[in-house]
Amino acid sequence: MLSKVRSSAVLGIEAHPVEVEVDIASGLPGLHIVGLPDTACKESADRVRSAIKNTGLAFPTQKVTVNLAPADLKKEGASYDLAIAIGILVASGQVPAESALEHVYCGELALDGRLRPVNGILPRAASLIGTGAGLVLPGDNAPEAQCVSGVRVMPAMHLSEVVALLKDGTALPAAPEAESVSAEPSADERPDLSDIKGQAYAKRALEIAAAGGHNVLMIGPPGSGKTMLAKRLPTILSSITFAEAVETTKIHSVAGLLPVRSSLLSRRPFRDPHHTISDIAMIGGGGHPKPGEVSLAHNGVLFLDELAEFRRNVLEVLRQPLEDGKVTISRVNSTLSFPARFMLVAAMNPCPCGYYTDPKRECHCSPIQIKNYLSRVSGPLLDRMDIQIEVSALKVNEITGERSGKGSQVVRGRVEAARSIQADRYAGTRYRSNAELEASQVERHCRCTSEGMRLLKMAIQELGFSARAFHKALKVARTIADLEGEATITAGHVAEAIHYRTLDKSMWIR
Predict the structure, then answer these.
(1) Helix crossing, 491-499 with 450-462: angle to 10°?
(2) Average pLDDT across the chain, whole number
(3) Is the peptide bond before 117 cis (omega within 30 degrees of 0)?
(4) Predicted pLDDT of residue 510
(5) DSSP class per residue in 244-278
(6) Are 133 and 102 contacting, i.e. CB atoms less than 8 angstroms apart?
(7) Region at 474 (left for phi over 0; alpha for psi -120 to 50; beta for the rest)
């Protein structure tokens, strides 16, 4: 007796079809799973056997062989439990084969037959667009799958419900409603850019960064507000689009970070890993490659506080995704790619003690100590920071005075307007912000006046701008012009952009 049912496997953030073949033959009773299953997948044998028996159905007292095809594709996790159980029930004649073939099955089984949620449902649902197949899945995963239009989502809470559907056409009960990820804080509790006293220069830099998707490096003494500024950056970012939300949710779903009964992520991610993080956790990988912090920050912000405290190899792996917007992980059997287009925001002290630039505190570090400390951030990585600013220590009247400056809502309105201009400019292309432009597109979209070009030539000669720094300054100038609603990049826009690129490490050794 042989049966075939359909399931799917997730590689990277894309799903691939898997055919579950079940053969029941004479021999010693037992359930054997082949087709490169991992440990969790092999353990399906015990879960499936108990789930079928505790649902009131008969488990075959013969030799049962389950093949997960294609056999050269690694099968991970417990998401094949439901498909294996249905395949056994079809092969044993307890469920009709015709109705079973109409659907794709994903879900983990509890010993009593309940269906538990699994990771990677959104990519699986997206892979079924246009196939006409229904997706039978745990009810807790339903809100996630229902974000994909054109796919029949069939949520179930128990194996018996799936069996009743296939045998008698009994409709499945309604899925649980989607739950919000977290309660929205009140207006008084919500962080706001106006919470930060002083630092008008740094706030302006963050506004430009948010408007154009630029990377930012802040350097200054402890207590100057670097971390506070970074933590309020999400409050001025533009709203996440539907396409961006789908991309971001796919990554979090595969990583197992999507809360149960939640649908699409409604906010841009903000990731702030500790400086003890490993390079694999940062970039992604492992025995079964999973997305790292750079991919979890896709379409959002990756904040590295105390940048110089991160291990050198961890920082160096950031260089390639900062340029390409993706991470490619190569293994012997496969090569996977994860999206990684994010804003890098970093903060660091100017010296080991932190007070080198503080006019009120004495620095006890020697020039060689300062040089060695700053050299922990390599020149190539520093060159990729579009905006580099010094965050000065607050003055007495700023610390004791009232809050000042525009709130996040006002600044976000200006950012949204600038992003709208960029969306119209890059309509029909793969670019979504000024920071994403490649060199050829910079020449096309970032033309400036002759006076502005003269300033850039001076920057190359006097400040030693590299070709990358030249293009990044032009892109920042383009964003400044967009914030002001100007079609042409003027000398004033260029001058401000150059001002954000003068934080060369040698200038700190006075």
Answers:
(1) 20
(2) 89
(3) no
(4) 42
(5) HHHHHHHHHHHTT-SPTT--S--S--EE---TT--
(6) yes
(7) alpha
Please say whether the beta carbons of 502 and 463 come within 8 A: yes
Tell which wins on pLDDT, 176 or 332: 332
Q: Which of 237, 242, 235 is nearest to 214 (CA)?
A: 237
Bridge partner list, 34: 67
Structural domains in the chain, CATH included, are 2-168 (3.30.230.10), 193-508 (3.40.50.300)
* Range picked from 222-231, 258-267, 341-350, 356-365 for highest mean pLDDT: 341-350
Look at residue 202 and give its three-state secondary structure: helix
Where are any strands of DSSP class E within 73-204?
A: 103-105, 108-109, 115-116, 134-138, 152-156
Please report the sign of the dihedral spanned by the C-alpha atoms of residue 318, residue 336, residue 143, residue 259. Answer: negative
Give tens-digit pLDDT for 430-478.
Answer: 899 999 998 888 888 888 899 999 999 988 888 888 888 899 999 999 9
pLDDT of residue 304: 97
Q: CA nearest 435: which of 447, 446, 449?
A: 446
Write the pLDDT tens digit of every residue in 52-70.
Answer: 999 999 999 999 999 999 9
Please check whether residue 507 is in contact with residue 479, taking contact to mean a CB–CB distance below 8 angstroms: no
Q: Which of 201, 13, 7 has the alpha carbon at shortest distance from 107?
A: 7
| Helix-then-strand count for the chain, H and E | 22, 18
Instruction: Give, rounded to a whole angstrom, the gap between the first and last alpha carbons of the chain.
Output: 82
Which residues share a beta bridge with 31?
64
pLDDT, tens digit, 9 for 90 and up, residues 201-240: 899 999 999 999 999 999 999 988 899 999 999 999 999 9
Report how far residue 503's alpha carbon sits from residue 510's, in angstroms, rounded to the nearest whole number.
Answer: 13
Tokens of 287: 């025995």
Token code pair at residue 504: 């060369």
Please choose, from the candidates 211, 203, 204, the residue with its C-alpha nearest in 3D space to the C-alpha of residue 433: 211
Cα 199 from Cα 91, distance rounded (Å): 70
User: pLDDT at residue 424 above 90?
Assistant: yes
Buried b or exposed e, range 426-441, using 16+ CB within 10 angstroms: beeeebbbbbbbeeeb
At 155-206, the pLDDT tens digits run 999 999 999 999 988 877 766 665 544 444 545 557 888 888 888 889 999 9
Residues 79, 64: Cα–Cα separation, whole Å: 19
